[in-house]
Design goal:
about 0% strand, mainly alpha
């Protein structure tokens, strides 16, 4: 894949903070994040996880309150669970396709 450039839509810090504030207010941030990321391209689970882990580091270093940091940790857990589901589904699909 060398030489191939891919345009990525990634949430910037302001967008991430806005989503976290919405989470603190009890609102769902899922649609906001999906709207930003699905404007043409999608982002991989690993890239999303890396971005959220970076945000987690930032919130820890910047003195954010415990609720904000907990919300970011929850997002990390959710992404990892989704990655595990996708990986399990791929394994099942691969197993079934090898039996045919």
């Amino acid at each position: 894949m060398s030489g191939v450039k891919r345009k990525r839509n990634v949430l910037n810090v302001e967008q991430k903070l806005e989503i976290l504030q919405n989470l603190d207010n009890g609102e769902s941030a899922r649609t906001d994040a999906e709207d930003v990321l699905n404007e043409g391209n999608t982002i991989s689970h690993s890239a999303a996880l890396q971005s959220v882990e970076t945000l987690l580091d930032y919130t820890g270093e910047s003195g954010f309150d415990y609720g904000d940091i907990t919300a970011v940790r929850k997002i990390c857990v959710d992404i990892r669970q989704e990655m595990n589901k996708k990986q399990k589904q791929r394994r099942i699909t691969d197993f079934l396709s090898s039996k045919c």
